Amino acid sequence: MRIDLHTHSTVSDGTESPAVLIRAARDAGLDVIALTDHDSTAGWGPAAEAAQQEGVALIPGMEVSCRTDTGISVHVLSYLHNPLHAPLVEEIQRSRDARLSRAERMVERLGADYPITWADVQEHIAEGATVGRPHIADSLVTLGIVSDRSEAFRHILTAASPYWVGHYAPHPARAVELIRQAGGVAVFAHPVASARGRVVGDDVVGQMIDAGLQGLEIEHRDNPEPGRQELRRIAARHGLLATGSSDYHGEGKPNRLGENLTSAAVLEQIEALATGSVVVR
Hints:
Elements: E1 3-4, H1 18-27, E2 32-35, H2 44-54, E3 57-67, E4 73-79, H3 86-110, H4 118-122, H5 133-142, H6 149-155, H7 172-181, E5 185-188, H8 202-211, E6 215-219, H9 225-238, E7 241-244, H10 264-273
Parallel strand pairs: 1-2, 2-3, 5-6, 6-7
Antiparallel strand pairs: 3-4, 4-5
Helix pairs in contact: 1-2, 5-6, 7-8
């Protein structure tokens, strides 16, 4: 069984609609796919409908944007939570609002040096989508300022650039608590992806485990092999699930569907642990 537990659609920063993403999963030979858009469950409905039509099982999920007390960005994957759980919904909405105002301020700063406006960026944001830097990157590509998203993130949209603006996001331990309260399964996404920026130390990982963390996304292209080995040791020591996935964004990133996979045994454990929603088959 081929299982990919981390993908994005146009509901956040992917380039394919939920329905197109499901068809792409079918064409890639996947049996199970999780839709984990940033801070949004708006794609669950159309993805579920397409999944039943295409014969692909769907794990409804979400990737929660977080930030530590020292400003390190962390992502926590939530699987099979209740999308109507009020405390989680309220926290996510606060993050979404902060993401929007942050993006507007970044574009304002960029406009001093590049021919880019907020109207340019809006052309790349689907209605109701979670706004993020990838939408700014797509606008920079369209305007011919960079060749692709990767170049935009390397040279213009990094945390070290003069255009950077931070935004509110919950502490990762708090996100884990909320996911668990909503009946979901909480998995730390790409924990040692050092090429993306600073990664958290044992103290934050410990706080997340104490809050109820249930798994680590180990098999991910951005986790270097020495880091994966340490993650396997942590997972074994604390009884955490070990997942693997693509973090597919359509044409927005080079990541390909199914390039890393999760075992059927781990998926069975995720289903057994979750109480907020169910797998769509």
